[in-house]
Amino acid sequence: MAGSQVVVGVDGGEPSAEALRWAATTAARRGATLRILLAYRWRVPAVLAPRGGLAEAARELADALVADWGRDAEAVAPGVDVRPAAVLGHPADVLLGVADEADLLVVGTRGRHRAAGAMLGSVSQQVATRASCPVAVVRGRAEPDGGVLVGVDDSASAGAALRLAFAEAERWGADLVAVRAIESPLTPPALGLPPLLYDTAEAARALSESAAARVAEIGREHPGVAWEFHGVAGDAGDVLCERSGRTRLVVIGSRGHRGLAGLLLGSVGLCLLQRAECPVLVAHAEPRAGEDS
């Protein structure tokens, strides 16, 4: 896509290297420019802040490092316009600062100084929850394959995720699987039928049918994508995490990106960002009037 930009944050750790490779491949698929950003900081007292030759030496080192990673990206995706740059600042601030210019931000699941296990890094979480554009958190299998998985419900954020998922499936030539997970038993609505008259099976069926109709509606805009819909019982986070081991990408929604709304992905999103076995793509959408964030 002419003028399209994929931006990836790097720091030299292995999760960052995986994110770089994924971003390069994705930029090639999109026909996009790949911007590689290395945000660097000084961990010294203010009175010793870099100046003169010391500051220049730090800048030259950062420039050399990001240039090397630029060559790595060119090797992965020959022909892609690769633009590496080193920027003084906090990584999350630097990446969020270019979000309005990007079509996609890409980060690794954690920084180079990571804690044990597969916990989500603070930079990745800040970018995923606060960016104004879609964000891919690269994690799980090194070279995921399979279709595109997306969780759906009746929210505006799920609609944005569904549209993005179909677009990604089209780019990758992949099938799409949409899942509506419904926890059981359902509770009666706050206003309406009393518990004894509330048919939870019928309510679950109605929710599933509504989600299926939504998938079909958006699917008609992408006739080249084969898709299927699954209405299942269970916790959405658990269901999507389990299925992520058989897919190349899982897409989720986030309600809004400004103010408090953008700070919350919800339990399903955070579960996937910490446990998914493939990259997670977060779609951002403003909440509808009256919809909780």
Description:
It is a single chain. This protein is α/β, with parallel strands linked by helices and 293 residues long. Helices cover 39% and strands 22% of the residues. Strands 3-2-1-4-5-10-9-6-7-8 form a ten-stranded mixed β-sheet, sandwiched between helices. α6 (200-219) links the parallel β7 (176-182) and β8. α5 (156-172) crosses α6. It starts with a strand and ends in an 8-residue tail after the last strand. Mean pLDDT is 83; it is low at 113-119, 256-263 and 287-293.
Secondary structure layout:
Layout: E1 5-10, H1 14-30, E2 33-40, H2 52-76, E3 82-88, H3 91-97, E4 104-108, H4 122-130, E5 135-138, E6 147-151, H5 156-172, E7 176-182, H6 200-219, E8 227-233, H7 236-243, E9 247-255, H8 266-275, E10 280-285
Parallel strand pairs: 1-2, 1-4, 2-3, 4-5, 6-7, 6-9, 7-8, 9-10
Antiparallel strand pairs: 5-10
Helix pairs in contact: 1-2, 3-4, 5-6, 7-8
